[in-house]
Amino acid sequence: MDVSASVPAEQSGWAVRTPGPIGTGPLARVHRTMPAPGPGELLLNVEACGVCRTDLHLAEGDLLPRRPSTVPGHEIVGRVAAVGDGTGLFRVGDRAGGAWLRGTCGSCRYCLGGRENLCPRSTYTGWDADGGFADTALVPEAFAYRLPEDQDAVRLAPLLCAGIIGYRSLRRSALPQGGRLGIYGFGASAHLAAQVAIAEGATVHVLTRSAQARALALDLGAASAGGAYDSPPEPLDSAILFAPVGDLVPVAMEALDRSGTLAIAGIHLSDIPVLNYQRHLFQERNLGSVTSNTREDGRDFLALAGRVGIRVTVSTYPLSKADRALADLAADRVNGAAVLVPG
Length: 343
Hints:
This protein is an alpha/beta fold. Helix content is 26%, strand content 27%.
């Protein structure tokens, strides 16, 4: 492949200019000179980029920007257009994936102990560096994933965050073999985690406000699907809260059986109401959070997704409509996962 012919002199995309409610237009179109990949970096021509709720949190200011005018997007599927010095795992033309976790120090006690997701110096795609809401993206090779050549890029993209985070959330929920799992909120991440749980023998109950999402849950094999504040038809061994709604924490905790665990999957959550010890925590119920993921999580999930044959439900948008995709996500108009495709 002629590398120089595959790398554009300029890229177009979207950046968060002024964070605020999505109706105020926090995203703006940008055109920038494309830099060459630095040491250890891959330059990807983006084939598809998923739209994550974290991108919405960044656009609306729930996550404070770490740099001005950042390009969001951290579910990047692309083809390697150029490589920097010191690379060797990927070659020009290979398909690679860029995800949320972008870098760690590699030397702190968390990194050395297999918990690099908790590294105090960790960095993130689309937050600390420009992401995939653009024609091209730079991805550190050490944090890139090798992706199947024969699968649709649009359906691979949501696996790179929605899938990986859903997988870690499922493991953090301590679901016993053949257990009863409650899922609160049923968007991109939840509809993938549910399939893993069902494939592993769990009974899954979905609680969400969207009638369209409830229909999708039943179609994917959930045992029941009710409203977000409804009680599941049986006590739960484990639950995962995907909706960024703190009011649902006591609801989910009360639905747990003795020694059950609730894992909160989001990076942002509205305030949690006061919990009642007897109703919500007594009988050894557990409440925990999920913070990013390790690269091992990513590799394990991507391998599992291939074995299980996970069905990815997507709503596709051209890159030129990224602002509309975020608006639809904010209004719960997206069924499954939203994915941007450069034109």
